[in-house]
Amino acid sequence: GHNNQNKLMPPTSSTGIKYERLIVYSIILLFIIAGLLLLFYVIYMTLPTDNKPVRKELFFEDDSTSMSIPNLGNGHMVIDRHNWGAQQGVHGPYKLPHPIPYVLITHIGVHSENCSDVHVCSIKMRTLQDAAIAERSLRDIPSNFYIGGDGNVYVGRGWDTANAYANMSLAVCFMGDYGRYEPNDLQLSALEHLLTFGEKHNLLTEDYKIVAHGQTRNTRSPGIKLYEKITKLTRWYPCGRPGYKRCGVEIGLPTVWDQEYPKLIATTTAVSQTVSVHRTQTS
């Protein structure tokens, strides 16, 4: 009886066993590959990289995440002078005519690290304003807007008051030293949203140009790492570089976009030229 039962059982061969093992190993290998792909995807999504696709949508008032703080969209808050603690009763001496034809990109420099939250950036803004008034004899903090490492925009002289460089430009300062550090994606996105807001509200000309501070005078500002970023922007204009005319010549800006030092006006030709243009534009 046992012999007959054994005859009914399927024969077991080494070839069949090898085939079953091959299937098992293949399944295990597929799981390993899937796990590695998932791991690489998680690493790619968590590590910062310049090659990531940038969100192109631009939102404005209807994208606010706060009921009390203005928002340019995509989380970029506008921190006004009151909120960062500006000195009261101080302002630049000249109005800023609209629409504005030039956007001037600067940085703080002097080994300044980027700030990462509203509290630290607000302290930096107060320090910058105090130094501008007490040490550099300026009427107010020099630039129109400041962009922190937190991706927020801090109001300096704003849209309606001329900056300390040239009164037919909008000066946007990146908070940090970008000869040493890389600007982050939040800052570049904040710049894009700020300028799009200005264009939408006719504060900037339709053909406004973006230039680096170093294209207008002998300075390292805004730092080589930031300069490399802004030269890739569609509105960047190569004036002041070899083979190109100086920046602003077509609208009568002075040869050197120098800072206003009121105590030195009588002895500094470049500053006198700047002040002359300011008075002409605001008269």
TrEMBL record:
Q: Which UniProt keywords apply?
A: Immunity, Innate immunity, Membrane, Transmembrane, Transmembrane helix
For this protein, the record's SMART domains field holds: Ami_2, PGRP
Task: Provide any one GO MF term from the record.
Answer: N-acetylmuramoyl-L-alanine amidase activity
Every Peptidoglycan recognition protein family domain range:
76-217
Membrane-traversing stretches: 22-47
Q: A GO biological process this protein is involved in?
A: innate immune response
All copies of domain N-acetylmuramoyl-L-alanine amidase, residue ranges: 88-223
Q: Which domain of life is it from?
A: Eukaryota
Q: Name one Pfam family in it.
A: Amidase_2
Annotated PANTHER family: PEPTIDOGLYCAN RECOGNITION PROTEIN, PEPTIDOGLYCAN-RECOGNITION PROTEIN LA
Q: State the family named in the UniProt similarity comment for this chain.
A: Belongs to the N-acetylmuramoyl-L-alanine amidase 2 family.
* Stated name of the protein: Peptidoglycan recognition protein family domain-containing protein
